[in-house]
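ok new one. same drill as before - structure tokens go in, u give me an amino acid for every spot. 281 of them this time. try not to just spam alanines like last time pls lmao
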């Protein structure tokens, strides 16, 4: 006997209306979320790095200084990237600007000015690690040219601490000055920026000085003076000044450590380092 030989009652799942089609939810970008920055194209990044390195080699006449400057720049910017990613501003990207330098770009603004201070100081602080391989090469070979690389790396990070837009120092000390009064920050940025621009022009650093002049002009045209996140409170302002002083002292110390074996004494190393900051040298 088979089931087809007798009448069968319909089961509980038979003769039911067809189920409505299930609509798949498609993820849509948030209206207020900016598009993800894909970063600098690899080919253009390589070309920009070669142009910058060649320009530094042409100015200095030393391939060691050119290599040290590029290596120090990349490590410096990667310090910014690490801080941005750790503070929820990433994924950050590095851009190399031909004949000028580099910049680290975040996907979003810092949640507070304190975060902005940490990001700005992370570059010079982390950037000093780039000097370690050059110290190692000097110890291994005894050749003083590697110490030139140490000095250049320290100098790059130290110059970036100048409180002139758009250098890191302006982002580290600017919020502290704005905590006193926005006009105090404005006056200080204009004064220091003008001094650095004059220093660049009198020493033949025309591209650097012109770039700073344009950045200072854009800084002055900005409508809202402190638009980023929550302002510093007084304890954060004190910590900002303290961290700035520590990083600046570390940069100066590494620079002198690179010069002392070449000059033979601390006083001569100080004199040589000071000559790099003279006007019209």
């Amino acid at each position: 006997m088979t089931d087809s030989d007798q009448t069968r009652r319909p089961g509980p799942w038979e003769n039911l209306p067809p189920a409505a089609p299930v609509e798949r939810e498609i993820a849509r970008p948030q209206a207020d979320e900016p598009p993800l920055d894909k970063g600098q194209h690899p080919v253009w990044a390589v070309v920009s790095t070669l142009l910058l390195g060649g320009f530094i080699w042409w100015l200095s006449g030393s391939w060691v200084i050119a290599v040290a400057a590029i290596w120090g720049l990349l490590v410096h910017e990667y310090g910014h990237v690490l801080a941005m990613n750790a503070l929820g501003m990433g994924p950050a990207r590095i851009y190399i600007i031909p004949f000028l330098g580099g910049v680290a770009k975040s996907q979003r603004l810092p949640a507070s000015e304190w975060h902005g201070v940490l990001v700005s100081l992370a570059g010079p602080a982390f950037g000093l690690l780039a000097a370690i391989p050059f110290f190692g090469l000097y110890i291994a070979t005894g050749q003083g040219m590697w110490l030139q690389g140490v000095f250049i790396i320290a100098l790059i990070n130290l110059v970036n601490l100048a409180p002139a837009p758009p250098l890191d120092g302006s982002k580290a000390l600017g919020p502290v000055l704005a905590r006193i009064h926005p006009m105090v920050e404005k006056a200080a940025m204009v004064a220091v920026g003008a001094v650095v621009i004059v220093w660049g022009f009198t020493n033949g650093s025309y591209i650097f000085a012109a770039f700073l002049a344009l950045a200072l002009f854009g800084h002055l045209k900005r409508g809202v003076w402190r638009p980023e996140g929550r302002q510093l409170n007084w304890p954060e302002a004190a910590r900002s000044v303290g961290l700035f002083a520590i990083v600046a002292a570390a940069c100066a110390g590494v620079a002198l450590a690179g010069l002392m074996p070449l000059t033979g004494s601390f006083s001569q190393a100080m004199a040589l380092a000071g000559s790099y900051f003279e006007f019209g040298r």
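The radius of gyration is 28 Å. and btw Residues 1-8, 19-31 have pLDDT under 50 and may be disordered.
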